[in-house]
Amino acid sequence: MTDTATMAGLDPATLADVLRVAGSDGFDRIQDQIRRTGGCSDPIHLQGSTVTRDAFTGQVLHSYSTEAEPGGRLRVACGNRRASRCPSCAWTYAGDTYHLIRAGLVGDPAKGTPETIRDHPRVFATLTAPSFGRVHNRPGNRPCACGIRHQEDAPELGTALDPATYDYAGAVLWNNHASELWRYFTIYLRREIARRAGLTQKAAHEQSRVSFGKVAEYQKRGAVHFHAVIRFDGPEGPDSPPPPWATLDLLTDAIHAAANRVAVDVPPAGEQPARTLRWGTQLDVQPIGAFGNGEDITEQAVASYVAKYATKAAETTGTVDRRIGNKEALVLLEVPDHPARLIAACLDLHALYPDRKLRDWAHMLGFRGHFSTKSRRYSTTLGALRQVRADYRAAQQREALGLPDPDDTPEATTLVLAHWTYAGHGHTLGESWLAANIRRDIQHNRETAREELPGQLTDEREW
Questions:
Q1: What is the distance between the alpha carbons of residues 344 and 368, in angstroms, rounded to a whole number?
Q2: What is residue 397's predicted lDDT score, i.e. its pLDDT?
Q3: Are the CB atoms for 463 and 95 separated by under 8 Å?
Q4: Which InterPro entries match (predicted)?
Q5: pLDDT attached to residue 346
Q6: Which of 168, 277, 334, 446 satisfies CB 3.0 to 4.6 Å to 345 for a cystine?
Q7: φ, ψ for residue 43 (rounded to 5)?
Q8: 42 contact partners, CB below 8 Å, separation of at least 6
Q9: pLDDT tens per residue across span 175-220
Q10: At what angle do helices 87-106 and 382-401 cross, to 10 degrees?
């Protein structure tokens, strides 16, 4: 058994369970269920039944029960957005985010945004955290302050040059208040726009709207920063053109001014001094050009970039993707020194700022906001995109079963009675191995199909 496990690249326990699953009577159905979830890493198990009846005669047109399934359970995708938890569901989430952001850049009538939106002034802005101490970096062609020219993947990049003087408390408090900094930024942005237009805030609001879609990303030093698409619209939102005064230059100037005005005060507590949190000086605002016109920042690149980081979190800095209850766990989990110090700072500060829930969000280095958000009128919603996918799959199922389409008749012709209960989640060792292989096959097929499409980009991820 040991030799076989070595040859297969599997540990004995996993190999034994793979053989058990492969030899079970329901193996083909288990494979089918896993494939239908896209190779989900942590599927939800359901038990129950559904019955479709003719609304007038009461005749049963279709019935299904999990009693006939292997183990009496049906597996459905977990839907987790985080790639560290479930690459398959994260891929779907990233795809939805891509289409959401892209619809607000190029327009998509099917998603509620007209194609004329491409003519609206829009920028890609990056708002960063201030410095909390010197860190190892790659300053152009020059060596780092430590005297070494670090490689691009050097593990020490982003870590403190002198941990004894680095402001770990300030860093996690800044992360913890980052969402409030963004909220104040959006408030001041509208005020600065009105000021530059020579209008009152009410008048500016009556003539224009500002829409945005943003995503949070962790820098290697463990500080959160935001990437945002910010767009000028007319008074009716994306369906109306912005007024003549709503120019790209005005929007850019207003963003800089608004970011400089934002300040969030944190009161003193224990040995911690009072702090005033602000955005960092590295504010970058670049216009978004039309795809294919030769610009560096294109609609395609922006949508792909935002979608990429919508599925990531603090684990990119070396921390873990689940809650940590105490400092002893940092050693057991082998968390690197820099993120471990940030997590320890969260645990220490929790008693001083209990309302900030720093202990609960220590694994996120203090950040407790949403990773991707948008204003109401930016474009469609993730819920709407999921509903389109659900409707499409339901239509496929009706066609396969020969059931009538409710859209073809003015009156409802069928009734669906369903009862479901939660029965657990996850895979056995063998099922996990099988799901990983199915997920890789699906990904390979997607990449092959994309490469065969004429005129498609190969350096940007597309969905």
A1: 16
A2: 83
A3: yes
A4: RepSA (IPR046828), RepSA_streptomyces (IPR048241)
A5: 95
A6: 168
A7: -65, 150
A8: 78, 80, 85, 86, 425, 426, 427
A9: 999 999 999 999 999 999 999 999 999 999 999 999 999 999 999 9
A10: 110
Residues in the chain: 463
b/e burial code for range 237-275 (CB count within 10 A of at least 16 → b): bbebbbbeebeeebbbbbbebbbebbebebeeeeebeeb
Alpha-carbon distance values, 420 to 38, 47, 73 (Å):
21, 6, 10
* Amino acid residing at 219: Q
Kindly list the domain boundaries of the chain, sorted by start residue: 2-82+383-452, 114-132+167-378
The distance in angstroms from the start CA to the end CA of the chain is 42
Tokens of 439: 């997920």
Indicate the Cα dihedral angle 178, 180, 181, 182, nearest 10°: 90
- What SS3 state is found at 122? strand
CB contact at 8 A, 161 and 234: no
Amino acid identity at 170: G
- Global confidence as pTM: 0.84
Bridge partners of 237, per DSSP, are 234
Secondary structure element (H or E) that encloses residue 132, with its range:
none
User: Would the pLDDT of 24 be above 60?
Assistant: yes
Evaluated on CA atoms 438, 444, 447, 450, the torsion sign reads: negative
CA dist 18 and 23 (Å) reads 9
Please name the amino acid found at residue 3. Answer: D
Give residue for tokens 């300040």. Answer: 263
Integer Cα distance of 14 and 384 in angstroms: 40
Query: Side by side, which strands form the sheet with 372-374?
Result: 284-287, 122-127, 224-233, 209-218, 372-374
Pairwise CA distance, residues 78 & 99, whole Å: 21
